[in-house]
Amino acid sequence: MKRFTAGVALVAALAGCTAPTPDRAQTTLDSVAAPTAVTFDGPSGEPVALPHLPATRIVSTMQSATEWIVALGAESLLVARTDYDRQPSLAHLPTIGGGSEPSAELLASLNPDLVIGWRNRGSADVQRTLAPFDIPVISMETTDTADVFLNLARIGLLVGLPGRADSLAAALRSELRDATAPCAGGATESAMIVVWSDPPMTAGAGTWLDQLLGAACLRNAFADVRAPWSTISMEAMTVRQPRWLITSAGVRPGDRLAEFRSRAGWNALEAVRAGRIIEIPGDLFARAGPTLGQTLRALVAGRGS
After folding, report:
1. What is the spatial distance between Cα 216 and Cα 61, in angstroms, rounded to a whole number?
2. Which domains does the chain have, with CATH numbers?
3. Under a CB-based contact definition with an 8 Å cutoff, are residues 193 and 213 in contact?
4. 13: confidence class by pLDDT, cuts 50, 70, 90
5. What is the structure's pLDDT at 39?
6. Across-strand partners of 95?
7. What's the pLDDT tens digit per position in 171-180?
8. Rounded to the nearest 10 degrees, what angle do helices 145-158 and 208-215 cross at?
9. Dihedral through CA 285, CA 219, CA 15, CA 144, nearest 10?
């Protein structure tokens, strides 16, 4: 099974097309209201009570949540990291591995007062194992950009810095607004987000990656797919012939294009033959957090190159 490194992290965490107009893209990214009430959920969506806030010892298995904690200046509250958390300020922390299915025993040994994880089976297993230790496990989703801002508000409360979280949210909204590409005459070009390559998996309508496409003056070739993250057929890709492919970057520039050109099915796509591949750095491609503006700028720059 062939996968892209950033796609592995994203997929593990997530266990006639209607073209988004420029106005829709602007509205989607720029008008997400600040949450009026913030609650916390467990891995199965159940409410979780957190009577002792702010937290003082946190384990985050979710890289975007960790990035928000660092952006808030609260990294001193973290007692571990994942292999994908590469910030220099976290290098001294013990690692819990990839983060998608952490060892509950290892987490308990770190004596956290809170674990933040994805809403998936791995987090549910951790929650059951940690229940005797009275260590709460909360989960967060990042399906769309509204989730991004809601998660920031939640994390701001968790670390006792809600005002700072509000400031970061305002700054991110401004960054997204400034990075949004104007579409001359409302024209857009089709694009497919390659989350996974074998079998092909893409981002459907309403996901944060879909919303960023709209803001980059691109339309999702699979916008009619209602599930957020869907496996699709090679035949569907060949019929739709997206003008652009969006994927995570390889070790060297052009690695992904060379790989697509060498593989049956993918090499039948006009985008591959013409070299219309936008390679996004893996940590941007797989995370919906403080770097959302950088991801949008990378899309806009790749389309213009």
Report:
1. 30
2. 5-21+183-304 (3.40.50.1980), 58-177 (3.40.50.1980)
3. yes
4. very low
5. 76
6. 81
7. 999 999 999 9
8. 120
9. 80
